[in-house]
Amino acid sequence: MTMYAAINTAALTLLAISGYRQTVALLVALLAAWAAGLEFAYWLRRRQDGPPPHRARLDGVVRRQWAACLACVAVAIATGAQLHLGAQARTDIEFLDGAVLVAFFSVWLSSLIDWYWILPRLAGIGGVPPCQDTHADTWNSVTQVWLYHRAIATLLFIGGIAAIPGYLSLAAANHTLAVVLGVVTFGVPAVMSEQAAAAVKALMNGLNPSAPVGSVVRVRLLDVLTVYLVDVSLQGSKYKRLDRRAEWDEKSDGPQIHNDVLASSNTSEVVRDACSPCSAETCARVNWYCRYNEKAYTRRG
Question: How far apart are alpha carbons 111 and 1 in whole angstroms?
Answer without folding.
Answer: 7
